Amino acid sequence: LTDLLQQYATSFRDPMMLQPPEWFKAFIYCEAFLQLPFFPVAAYAFLKGGCRWIRTPAIIYSTHVATTLFAILAHILFHDFSKSELAGPQSLRERLVLLSIYLPYLLIPLLLLFTMLCNPHYKHVEKRKRK
Question: Does the pTM exceed 0.70?
């Protein structure tokens, strides 16, 4: 696995995987302790179907992931990697290739957020009191 990680980082010029900045490490911890536990819960809710209670956790999950990905994508686009010890993307093409690897991790949570906010099945239905 170490060789595979090294090959990925070299091929796609992703120094964040080999020497992650402190803020990126914080995102990794959030992923390990917040996002990963959400996966089996969400899988259960979506496979079972009809679980409207998943709406709030899914909104929290998707907004958290989207927020972290905006920071990562901005770092890829605007950071000066010429000062890094490891080879990072230098040209616009290399930055866009690396961006395309991270982009699905933004698009999928945004689709989940859109589904939770717009799908009538997951919208909260108010119960009115009878007189």
Answer: yes
